[in-house]
Amino acid sequence: MEMSSRERVLAALNREVPDRVPYCELNIDRSFAQKLKGAEAYIGNSALQQGNPFSLDEAKALSENLGLDNMFYLLRQPVYAKSHTGKDGRQFSGNGLIKTEADFELIDLPDPHKDEFYAEAEKFGKNKGDFALFFLSRMGLAPAMLSMGIQNFSLALYDNPGLVEKLLDIYFDWMVVVAERISQLDFDVFATADDCAFKTGLMFSPQIFQDMIVPRYRRVLEKVTLPWVFHSDGNITEVLDMLIDLGVAGVHPFENTAVDIRTIKRDFGHRICLLGNIDLNILGMGTPEETTGEVHGLIRDLAQGGGYILTSGNSLAEFLKPECVFAMSEAVRKYGRYPINLV
């Protein structure tokens, strides 16, 4: 029986077998959207460019154009760091501005108690149609690291852990309020991106994650009534058991130069939904035929028994080829119908 996109995504996150493998993305560069066929819908500045990159109408048109099963609404805490512009206009955080507690006076987070703060999110929820609507934010770890700078954050874990914990609490306290409010709106998935790993492993010890981060995650998640999807680049296998104990429904994207997603499926696929991980090098420098082959292989090896959502290996960045991204979307429909019977 044909499922709606929302039903399809929620079934996969619950490790059930949907009618076909869902195709979702957690983020899309506005500059990439402007390269697509039908790009006139995204040309010009978005009224929401300081937060969510697309208006409701733009987000719907983009998901329809790409054949996505989801839409996303992006709302992230401000980061207090110097920024610089990379190739294609993408913004990167540089030196963190928070060095001491005196620098906390720089922090001015939006008031999460005001109803008007959620007006646009509420509009997305009420008008999502059949799409699965993802709320995308950061739990609190990433903005704290970026605001201090990764090097200063790492040194302070040893030299001044009290400073780190106070900054973490500022961000996590804010997210506790936001998580509760978002869970009361018409969102389907609560997705958080807290990059905390290199290709070789965590940026800090698993013990620090257990002692300092897990209790704060738990405090937020007590307010969340939606399936939780966790994103981090790099190799996070050392903390997968901790994330599962916290109740994570899905993990994204198992970066293919850091982790073997097929091994993750074997070892953890009975406990979590896997989201990932079409190689961005193929999507950016390959051909549609290579993309189709990559989709075929991932569905063949990961989709058996459900619990799999196909996505790019990170997000739809500006440097990707539209023809490869469309090939990815088309290949999901070609190969992703259950029962999976690929060789």
Low-confidence parts:
46-50
Distance from first to last alpha carbon: 24 Å
Strand content: 5-15%
The CATH architecture of the domain at 25-259 is Alpha-Beta Barrel
Overall outline: globular
What is the percent of helical residues?
Answer: 40-55%
Taking all residues together, what is the mean pLDDT? Answer: 94
What would you call the structural class? Answer: alpha/beta
Q: How many DSSP E strands?
A: 11
Largest sheet: 7 strands, parallel
Oligomeric state of the chains?
single chain
CATH fold call of the domain at 25-259: TIM Barrel
Widest sheet, order of strands: 1-4-5-8-9-10-11
How many DSSP H or I helices? 13
Blueprint of the fold:
Layout: H1 5-13, H2 30-33, H3 56-66, E1 70-74, E2 81-85, E3 91-96, H4 119-126, E4 132-137, H5 141-148, H6 150-159, H7 161-183, E5 189-193, E6 197-198, E7 201-202, H8 206-221, E8 228-231, H9 240-246, E9 250-252, H10 261-268, E10 273-278, H11 280-285, H12 288-302, E11 308-312, H13 322-335
Parallel strand pairs: 1-4, 4-5, 5-8, 8-9, 9-10, 10-11
Antiparallel strand pairs: 2-3, 6-7
Helix pairs in contact: 5-6, 6-7, 7-8, 12-13
